[in-house]
Specification:
By secondary structure, the chain is mainly beta. It contains one helix and 30 strands. A hairpin with a 2-residue loop joins strand 10 and strand 11.
């Protein structure tokens, strides 16, 4: 169980896990729809142009999943398709994933997807990804059992003629336990390449040192195969390379976090690695660590990459000893002429008690709009925008229910940056404590 899931369960207390119901239900006492997720607020455009738009500033919808049990944790993992018309949202308590589509200005749940064969302790929905047009979804299940071994897996689902079906189960044939395959996942824009983090593998892709690895899977003629294994050039014991991953839309660039890099015997705590694909081979191009003056920053528990592959973000949310300067930051790196350089170090305005700023990240296609989640004290989400080579905080979203909702637990941004989503998996309504919600802003 990773730190994000553990913190969510603490927020939820001892509420009972349960299944999300289908598409029935009506307004509750608070006036919100609790069956099929529907839009509330101002009308929402049916699509999201790839061209850059103004950063979002207004809530246009609040979505809930149906269900009669007390806790669904809807919104524990969220992702938007590139065109902004499809939302994928996990419900961690019952380990299901909801596909919600925007049609004629209304959000409607079109599918609830689950694996064809359920594996004991699979944690299905720990991570999610969706391609550019919302027709392919990738779901991580890092505790999935394969041949009686808790190896982990990532499941591919595809939509054809309006129906969703499982296309593949991506895992490794190694019989080692606790590899955590699928704890982080990412998809290319056309849905044909998947990047799957495996932080407890060693440098050969097996278990042992937990230096970490990531698997690249590719689809050809409807068949998925493991094409490459990525490992850091200098990763070592407990580095957990692949704990977080992100892939560009054309599957030519990847960023991978190793939050355990360095450990207690190093002045650095965490690293992020840039990989690029050329001529069919993946090679490491750069390695990022915290700036020397901020060496106490806990680096890379979250990473993100713009779809065009030009901008990478690395979260540094957890200082060992909190101060206004150390930790609680997001690093921005940009690529020019094949060289990666540090562009900025973003900090939230206002209350310095906003720890865990940068534990969740999402970027627009061109890397000019960022949504940054705060996943501890002061749960919230910040919009930053880049203009004339300078980054500035645009707004802060906080949701309706305060810090007990776990608002900001995961975030997503459309290609244009004009539509964003924020998960609040611990938010309840009068009938269902901790049922969860997803907010939409434009």
């Amino acid at each position: 169980m990773d730190n994000r899931r553990r913190r969510l369960l603490v927020a939820l207390g001892t509420a009972t896990a349960g299944a999300v119901a289908g598409c029935s239900g009506g307004p509750n006492d608070a006036g919100e729809q609790t069956g099929t997720p529907t839009m509330t607020g101002t009308p929402t455009p049916a699509g999201d142009s790839m061209a850059s738009q103004e950063p979002p500033s207004e809530q246009t919808a609040k979505l809930r999943a149906g269900g009669e049990e007390t806790t669904d944790s809807f919104g524990s993992a969220v992702e938007l398709s590139g065109d902004g018309s499809t939302l994928v949202a996990a419900s961690s308590s019952d380990e299901s994933v909801h596909v919600i589509s925007l049609t004629d200005g209304e959000w409607t749940e079109t599918a609830q997807i689950e694996p064809d064969e359920s594996g004991l302790g699979e944690v299905f929905g720990e991570s999610v990804a969706v391609d550019g047009d919302g027709s392919t979804v990738l779901v991580g299940a890092p505790e999935d059992r394969s041949n009686d071994h808790e190896v982990g897996a990532a499941y591919v689902f595809s939509r054809s003629d309006g129906e969703w079906s499982q296309q593949a189960e991506l895992t490794t044939d190694r019989p080692d336990e606790f590899l955590e395959v699928g704890i982080s996942v990412s998809l290319s824009g056309d849905g044909s390449t998947a990047l799957v983090g495996t932080p407890r593998a060693d440098s050969t892709g097996t278990t042992g040192s937990t230096s970490g690895a990531a698997y690249v899977f590719s689809r050809s003629d409807g068949e998925w195969t493991q094409a490459w294994t990525l490992v850091g050039e200098d990763t070592g014991t407990l580095d957990m390379f692949g704990k977080t991953v992100a892939l560009s839309a054309d599957a030519s660039t990847a960023v991978l976090g190793a939050p355990g890099y360095g450990g207690i015997d190093s002045e650095k705590d965490g690293a992020a690695y840039m990989f690029e694909r050329s001529g069919g081979d993946w090679t490491q191009q750069a390695k990022f660590t915290a700036d020397d003056e901020y060496s106490e920053d806990t680096f890379a528990p979250a990473v993100e990459l713009s779809a065009d592959g030009s901008t990478a973000m690395v979260g540094a949310p957890e200082p060992e000893d909190y101060s206004e300067e150390i930790g609680n930051a997001v690093y921005v790196f940009s690529q020019s002429d094949g060289e990666w350089t540090r562009e900025d170090r973003l900090k939230p305005k206002g209350d310095p008690g906003e720890i865990y700023f940068g534990n969740t990240l999402s970027l627009s296609r061109d890397g000019s709009v960022a949504l940054i989640g705060v996943t501890n004290i002061g749960y919230s989400a910040y919009v930053f925008a880049k203009s004339d080579d300078s980054w500035a905080q645009e707004t802060r979203f906080m949701g309706d229910k305060g810090h007990l909702s776990a608002f900001g637990y995961d975030v997503g941004v459309s290609d244009s940056g004009g539509r964003v989503v924020v998960g609040a998996p611990a938010e309840g309504d009068p009938d269902r404590e901790g049922s969860g919600a997803v907010y939409v802003y434009e």
